[in-house]
Design brief:
Blueprint lengths: L1 H23 L5 H25 L8 H14 L3 H8 L3 H21 L6 E4 L2 E4 L3 H24 L6 H21 L4 H53 L5 H19 L9 H10 L12 H4 L7 H22 L5 H13 L20 H16 L10 H10 L7 H14 L1
Antiparallel strand pairs: 1-2
Helix pairs in contact: 1-2, 1-8, 2-3, 2-4, 2-8, 3-5, 4-5, 4-6, 5-6, 6-7, 7-8, 9-10, 9-14, 9-16, 12-13, 13-14, 14-15
């Protein structure tokens, strides 16, 4: 009896906890919350009603109240699977199934005076000759719950078959003893199964939400990347380029970054996420050219000192423009990364670059990588003011400016990577 009382108390506390959790949880709509609460409260009622009948303290004068209590319990018990199917979101199925269980409630009510399914006498509770009807409805309801969980699982991307197996084992372990051995463990198993069902469904919902968020984030990232590439190509077209410079330089920066990571250079900064970021944002490096006049951008000859000073403005302006474009649509790290590339990719290792004249490792790493890629591609490309340079000669120039224009460590990585790619 102590074990039985403990199991009932555990069931009540378990269902009370789940009810409070559902009320406070924001992940379900109101209709689902109602179904969950009805399910858990039903388990609480049925387990308490069973305890009142089988607690070991019986007085014949309570036969009628206990009969009413048991009729209600026997009517509700097989319907709990229906309630839970509603909680799982199967509103149409739950409504249809309710009509299947209404006849059982009527059978319980009309058979009670005749003691066909159960009855009370001077000694207490007894099963009637037609108790099998209750058992049949009970097992039908459990089968319905399994089918409901299968249907729900099909509606989600993720499923956990092991959880369903655990629920089946838990239910069988509790329902069979009370059916065939008169050992009253049904509601503790039903309570535990309800919790498992709840957790199962909640996990399905959360995994689907996570999958949707990941898909949405990927879509936003793709849109952002297309916007960046498109904007960069528009800027390049003003400089008589076709967007090929954008595509080539982003390949070069990835080549350098991957080579650095593989060689353990700047390993505190460069990882796979860093490589993805610099590859995505490299096209923004010359966005500041939008403030430079076409006369200067398209000039076929050498720029005058005054024109060169106007051209240099594009670096600082690029950082400001990038920050304004990306502000509010991405995080601060992303914005700073893009701004650093646009602002500082014309800085030099020896401090003689622009716009700030910073040197060495004070120059952001992404800008130092971008500088090599930008200069190399400019050397080997045809421009309105020059012919393309052979790649081997361009690589020699990059090598010769290691330690003056470019970061020596990155130059070694670049040359090594280029030699491997040839």
């Amino acid at each position: 009896m102590a074990f039985y009382l403990s199991s009932i108390i555990l069931t009540e506390l378990l269902m009370l906890t789940m009810t409070i959790h559902v009320i406070r949880y924001s992940g379900f709509n109101k209709r689902q919350k109602v179904w969950f609460i009805i399910t858990f409260v039903s388990v609480m009622y049925c387990s308490l009603a069973e305890f009142c009948v089988h607690c070991g303290y019986y007085d014949p004068k309570f036969a009628i109240p206990l009969t009413v209590l048991t009729v209600l319990q026997f009517s509700i018990a097989p319907s709990m699977a229906v309630f839970f199917s509603g909680a799982l979101g199967l509103y149409r199925q739950s409504k249809a199934a309710i009509w299947f269980f209404i006849p059982h409630a009527l059978i319980e009510i009309f058979s009670a005076p005749f003691g066909l399914i159960f009855y009370f006498d001077a000694e207490g509770y007894h099963r009637g000759s037609m108790f099998i009807i209750y058992s049949a409805f009970y097992f039908a309801s459990l089968l319905y719950l399994m089918v409901s969980m299968y249907i729900v699982g099909r509606n989600f991307r993720h499923r956990d078959g092991m959880t369903i197996i655990m629920i089946i084992i838990t239910l069988i372990g509790g329902v069979l003893p009370v059916t065939f051995m008169n050992i009253h463990t049904a509601y503790i198993s039903i309570g535990m199964s309800s919790c498992l069902c709840y957790i199962y469904y909640n996990d399905l919902v959360q995994e689907d939400i996570h999958a949707e968020l990941v898909a949405h984030q990927k879509k936003m990232n793709d849109m952002q990347e297309h916007m960046i590439s498109g904007l960069a190509s528009i800027i390049e077209s003003r400089d008589l380029e076709t967007g090929e410079h954008v595509a080539r330089t982003r390949d070069y920066v990835r080549l350098i970054a991957e080579g650095a990571m593989n060689d353990g250079i700047y390993k505190d900064e460069i990882d796979k996420e860093y490589i993805s970021l610099i590859y995505t944002l490299a096209p923004m490096h010359d966005v500041g050219k939008i403030v430079v006049s076409d006369t200067i951008l398209k000039k076929p000859g050498r720029l005058t000192d005054e024109e060169y000073e106007q051209m240099k403005v594009h670096a600082a302006s690029g950082g400001v423009i990038v920050s304004k474009i990306l502000s509010g649509i991405t995080d601060e790290r992303y914005i700073k990364f893009a701004s650093d590339i646009a602002t500082y990719h014309h800085e030099r290792w020896d401090g003689t670059g622009y716009p700030s004249g910073i040197k060495g490792t004070d120059i952001p790493l992404c800008a130092r990588i971008m500088a090599i890629a930008d200069v190399y591609d400019a050397l080997i490309s045809e421009r309105c003011y020059k012919s393309p340079m052979p790649k081997d000669k361009a690589m020699e120039i990059i090598r010769s400016e290691s330690g003056t224009h470019f970061d020596p460590s990155l130059v070694r990585v670049f040359l090594k990577s280029m030699e491997k790619s040839v």
